[in-house]
Specification:
Elements lengths: L3 H19 L3 H12 L3 H9 L7 H31 L6 H26 L1
Helix pairs in contact: 1-2, 1-4, 2-3, 4-5
Amino acid sequence: MSAVPLCKAYARRLVDAEARNTGRPVKDCIRAVARRLREPHGSILALLYRDPKDVRSRLVRALAEEVERTVRGEIASLENELLAVRLGAARRSEDELAEIEADLAGLKARLRPAASREAA
């Protein structure tokens, strides 16, 4: 099985997260993600807008590690928000609270398969 579809999804997730967090244009976010991964920005660009035949193993590993780091950061952010709501520092409706808990559970479920794969 080719790693290309997985890497395309990882690259899209990282670029979207960078754009969401910084508010910068996607073009700038592609460069920022490539710098963070220490990869040529053309590699990330190709994953987003072309269909490469294969991907180097170093890039696969770098993308997977960065996505895991990003997901862990999102989990920490949601846990902090949930704690603030429970302590009364922030007000949220019951629907919003349920949405935060569902998002948190979904992100934690995404990390479990990766952790079990590394343990094997």
